[in-house]
Amino acid sequence: MTGIWYVVGLAVAGVGFVFLVMGLARLISHRNRGDRHKGLPFESGIDTYGDTWGRFGISFYVYALLFLAFDVEVVFLYLWALVFRDLLIGGLVSMGTFVLVLMLGLAYAWRKGVLTWQ
Q1: Residue 106, pLDDT score
Q2: Kindly report the CA angle at 91 between 90 and 97, in degrees rounded to 5?
Q3: Are 95 and 77 in contact (CB under 8 A)?
Q4: CATH (one of 2.120.10, 3.40.50, 3.90.930, 1.20.58) for 2-112
Q5: Under a CB-based contact definition with an 8 Å cutoff, are residues 46 and 98 in contact?
Q6: Alpha carbon distances (Å) from 84 to 31, 37, 93, 115
Q7: For residue 64, what pLDDT is reported?
């Protein structure tokens, strides 16, 4: 029965920490309700010029998706390398297949011209 008190204590501490951080952020933040600049969009402290709701090209999103795909590949390769000695030949074949499929996807994207910046 004493184990439940550890869980309750941890939950109370977690919720308390969240509210403490939110309260401190509210105290520290500068909030001028009457300031005319409060609702203006900005980036890096500089007021925008032109249309602030302008559209970005699709190439930005394609690069982001490709980065995510290969970033996940690196995570899987790292974890695979940690347990490489325990996996035997099946692990080597499955990781080789995984890398081959990703390399085929990269070759396809490269051939379609997705990786060229225009």
Answers
A1: 86
A2: 90
A3: yes
A4: 1.20.58
A5: no
A6: 54, 57, 12, 32
A7: 85
The stretch 81-102 carries a mean pLDDT of 88
pLDDT number for residue 71: 87
On the question of pLDDT at 104 being above 90, the answer is yes
Average pLDDT of the chain? Answer: 82
A 10 A CB-CB count for 98 gives: 14
**Smallest Cα–Cα separation from 67: which of 112, 113, 104, 102?**
102
Query: What is the chain's length?
Result: 118
Domain ranges of the chain: 2-112
